[in-house]
Task: inverse folding
């Protein structure tokens, strides 16, 4: 689990990131989870945008992504989900 201090640190790092995935009306699927997992391995910290036509609640979408990828939720702000997962091969972010 991330501490409050670590979440603040990651939020500041995520601020300038652009979302690299979008969740639309079909919600979360297996293929999306695989791709997000690969992106997390390369980048450790990613933003995911939830489109307005998404029928699911953003908390539910975040829960599905976290369960599927094993990532940690940094924050949900507006229609953005920020996820963090420590990389095994490409570790760059040093948590406080």
Result:
């Amino acid at each position: 689990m991330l501490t409050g201090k670590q979440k603040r640190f990651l939020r500041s790092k995520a601020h300038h990131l652009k979302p690299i995935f979008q969740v639309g009306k079909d919600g979360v699927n297996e293929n999306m989870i695989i791709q997000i997992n690969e992106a997390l391995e390369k980048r450790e910290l990613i933003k995911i945008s939830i489109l307005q036509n998404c029928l699911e609640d953003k908390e539910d979408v975040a829960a599905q992504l976290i369960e599927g990828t094993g990532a940690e939720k940094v924050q949900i702000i507006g229609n953005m989900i920020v996820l963090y997962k420590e990389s095994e091969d490409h570790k760059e972010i040093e948590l406080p």
